[in-house]
Model the fold of this input.
Amino acid sequence: MLKLLRGLLPWALPALAAALLWAANSVSDLSAWRLGEIEQRPCGTAERDWQAAELRVRSRCRLYRAERTLSAAQLLDQALIINAMTRDGRVLINGQMLREPDPSPATSYSSIPVLLAVPAGVLHLGSNEIVFQLRSGAGALERIYLGEVYLGPRAILAPVWQRNAVVGQRGAQLALVVSFAITLFLLPIAWVRRHESLYGWFTLTLLASAIYISNFAFAWRPLPLLIWSVLVHAALALSLWSLIKFSHRFVGAPKPQHERLFGWLVVLAIAGFAVSRWPGLTWLFGFELVYRCSQVALLAYLATFWWQQRQRMTSPRPAWFAAAVIMLAVLGVFDSLAALGVSGQPLTSYTLHWGALYLLILLFAALVIRIVRALADAERSQAQLVLALAERSAELETEFALRREAQQARTLAEERHRIMRDMHDGVGGQLVALIGQAQNGQLPAAELQLQLRRTLDDLRLMIDSLDGACADLSVALGMLRQRLDPAFVHLPVKIEWRTAQLPDLQPVPPTVVLNVMRIVQEAITNALKHAAASTIRVSAKLVEEGRESTLHLDIEDDGTGIAAEAERGRGLDSMQQRAQVIDASLDVRSGPTGTCVALRLAQGRLG
Amino acid sequence: MNLPSSVRVLIVEDDAHTRERLAGVVEREARFELAAVAGSLQQARLALENQQPTVVLLDLELPDGNGVSLIHHLQRAVPLAQVLVISVMGDERSVLGAIAAGAGGYLLKDSSDRDVVAAIDQLLEGGAPLSPAIAVHLMRRLQAPACRPSHESVPRLSERELELLKLITKGLSYDEVGQVMGLRYNTVASYAKELYRKLQVHSRAEAVFEATQLGLLSAARV
Done:
């Protein structure tokens, strides 16, 4: 039941609206009060004076005259309806002015009927003369025009005029307000989404139909009549054309091949209408049919298009559109027939704007629904995205933790391996050698103590190198200094440290610390043991060259130097090897006045 | 020297050889008196029931627990006793932990006899040993990062203390530091002692801070 109702509603609503409009428009027969024979005359001298006094430009003037014989019952409470008239004109009954001229030069014609009350005493028994003095502004593009005129009881004519005004003028004003409101709403969207022509076409539809509708809403004519008339009808054709473009884009189907055809049809319609209004050539009026037929064709295409979409799309919207377009076409056809005088009464007002209003509201609603749905979709997918992101980051965190653990395990294993190798080669080897020597009894106690002390020193270096604080080589040097200093108190050799000015250095790995310290310690030991020096000087400084900085470590003594090639024991070789391991350069210079061991180690930038 | 007439020394060390050696050093020095030797925490506690030592030479790695617990015990039982931690090389972190608990200094296990006497003397004179590595660790602990809310009672390093620590990290002796900073040796040594005290207060404040964070203190007050 509900489904049936939903199916029927799109058709029932416009049908109902059309029926209401038709009922409002079908006025009672007014032919009894119509002024039958209106004769046209050129203006006389008096009228010309009026014309010349107020208009400086050359204008045309025409006089319309009718007569009506009235009975005594027809003298009071009478009114005059003029359904269309050049606006700048006077209306006189029996020589008395009923309507003053409206000389605004840009307003010349109005399709909005005028109701004039006839004051008491103006009409008299028998023959009455009704005169219209009409004039147009300058130029061939203006027209002097007088439509149907009715003279009858006000009680009958006024309601007819009133109804006409509501259906025609008020309806058009309402349609205008609504379409401007929608335009205001859509313009920002159309601007933001300008790469998407959908909104642009809809806005164009709205603006073009507003121009057309304004023709019925106001008597205001900003252009010469003929130009204005062509413009208004071109706007209607344009609005239908952009409506077709909008419809194509709205359903999201690829742009049909025949879309270009409608452009040419619109051009043809506008040309036909312009030709039909060619001034002075009334026989061209038939060209207006070209215009009206092409409009009907455009509407028929639109109705068919939406009807087909009804099959394709599951939502009921296409049915609504199809029904609205059909209603628009029906109203348009009736309007055209009335305008061409084929059917209806002269006082029948235009109704097309009601159909346009209905269709625009429908389209706007569809657009808003689409925007709202898109918004809901976007919010939903945003929520899903956030969820997915959270999941993914959790996964990544787990993965990262695993990797970090693996990395830590690897680092730990490497470090352990390094320490074991150091132990084996260094302390271990020394101890094994000492045990062997001690077993053979070759080693005097003093020498044993010395060797053990050396082994212990080496062990200390290893342990120091593992302390985080000693990753800064300046601290590691400080540790070495603090340990070595007390021993020198009891030695005849003096040790000088020039290391205190060293700035804080970038942390380096334990391997680097250990090897640097071993080289320094070895160099000092060599100087102590072999050089017979009186002073050993350890100096350190950071030398910066551009962006590079190098740690300079020099161990100098004032001893006898390294005597012979044979004396170049394994000590120097191992120092070289250690320097190689840490990518440092080691230079040993020796002479009779002393030895200098120079270590150069490139530094990363601090901070 | 203005030393107390008799310095009673308690040695807590599980390695018999080191224990014997240290006991020998103490006994040979006329100013010192060997109060007792202990090889475990239990023995040390027993000894403390009868003895009031002036100085305790304490090994941290004991068969029945960590030496730090004995420091806490000492602070109640013999508040005036001073502790020298017997440290193995490169064990700066445990030394720092012991200092935070209240130890006044440390002694390297392989120090010469002369060094042992000097360390006890330094402790009694109100000084404290500072190695470059310990100086770095002190700087790191006491220059608390800004993310920790600065507690009123958390001590910070003063400019001079920072300068002193910087010089120590380069390996300068107290004498040399004194020369650079224009201070006497004793002043430098007491600066070091003050730094140790700061670390203790700092550690206590940290513990209080963390306990407050956990709501333990407020719960205890209720």
Observations:
- Chain B is about 55% helix and 15% strand.
- The first strand of chain B starts at residue 7 and ends at 12.
- The CA atoms of residues 101 and 200 of chain B lie 6 Å apart.
- The beta strands of chain B are 7-12, 32-38, 55-59, 61-62, 65-66, 82-87, 105-108.
